[in-house]
Design a protein that fits this description.
It is a single chain. With 277 residues, the protein is an alpha/beta fold. The chain folds into two domains: 177 residues, Rossmann fold, CATH 3.40.50; 64 residues. The protein contains nine helices and twelve strands. The strands form four sheets. The protein has a five-stranded mixed beta sheet with strand order 2-1-3-4-7, with helices on both faces. A three-stranded antiparallel beta sheet has the order 10-12-11. Strands 5-6 form a two-stranded antiparallel ribbon. The longest helix is centred in the middle third of the chain and has 17 residues.
Length: 277
């Protein structure tokens, strides 16, 4: 059994669940790229793969994750090639895809389908969509992320595993193709597996609300956005957007425009966009 997850924290909790139930025994593999942001065109050929890698290099340049786009630490294509090789060599092997109801997991699921269609009947989905679980305090909750589910609750979740149908293998890739051709930069989950797309500046207006007339570290502004905003994405993406706003001359800055802790920002005199509460 091979397990696919889309977040590092998910690998940790799933491995703990495997320790509790040997029926889940298997390798846990993480898809590392965040396909909920960035270009999607031609992602299954060299041109599109290169364009996306170049985009990530631009986003990460001069920030906390500078150079990560080219250091080999994120190489989903190598990961998938190794996994497909295992499935071809061992016809008894099965693949379980774990996804929660968030844009990151669903985008990763869509991207992945292209590579596993040939194994139809051996590929299972565990989509925890609007399903109740019990947290560590004994309260019922509806998780948006797998890693928020206690390991012992995964033992119940495994009962949800079902084969991805032939119809899904035909229809879902078409949906991904449609999204790829729209040439938008941000994907938001509306419900179920329905993704809608927006331009790269989708988060900008909300991010601006956390910039005040007082000096604040960039990391603090981004941290507030991530903890309070309804729609969020990774801190690296938000740092990139923040730097683009600064380049537009909208805000005062002091310090070195590099990592999140290296510079501070405030509204220009007479301009305040403060979050209430």
């Amino acid at each position: 059994m091979i397990h696919i997850v889309f977040n590092e924290a998910d690998t940790l909790v799933l491995n703990k669940a495997i320790e509790l139930d040997k029926a889940l025994q298997g390798k846990v593999i993480q898809i590392k790229d965040d396909y909920a942001v960035g270009p999607l065109a031609n992602l299954y050929v060299g041109e599109g793969i290169g364009a996306r890698k170049a985009w990530w290099a631009q986003v990460l340049a001069g920030g906390d994750y500078d150079g990560k786009a080219g250091d080999g630490s994120v190489d989903d294509y190598k990961t998938i090639a190794e996994m497909v090789g295992e499935l071809r060599r061992n016809p008894e092997e099965t693949l379980w895809i774990w996804a929660a109801q968030n844009k990151h997991d669903v985008s990763g699921y869509y991207w992945l389908l292209h590579y596993v269609k040939e194994f139809q009947g051996r590929v299972f989905i565990l989509y925890l969509n609007n399903l109740p679980f019990i947290n560590e305090k004994g309260n019922i909750f509806y998780p948006s992320w797998l890693h928020t589910i206690p390991p012992k609750e995964f033992l119940k979740a495994k009962k949800l595993a079902r084969p991805i149908t032939l119809s899904e293998f035909e229809v879902d890739p078409d949906e991904w193709t449609r999204l790829s051709e729209e040439n938008k930069g941000v994907r938001i989950l509306e419900g179920g597996k329905k993704l809608v797309q927006y331009d790269y500046d989708f988060y900008d207006a909300d991010l601006k609300r956390y910039i005040t007339k007082d000096w604040q570290k960039a990391g603090k502004i981004i941290g507030q956005f991530l903890s309070k905003n309804k729609h969020t994405t990774g801190d690296a993406y938000m740092l990139w957007r923040l730097k683009l706003m600064i380049a537009g001359g909208e805000y005062d800055i002091q310090g070195e425009l590099k990592n999140m802790k290296d510079f501070e920002i405030k509204s220009k005199a007479g301009v305040t966009e403060r979050v209430n509460g």
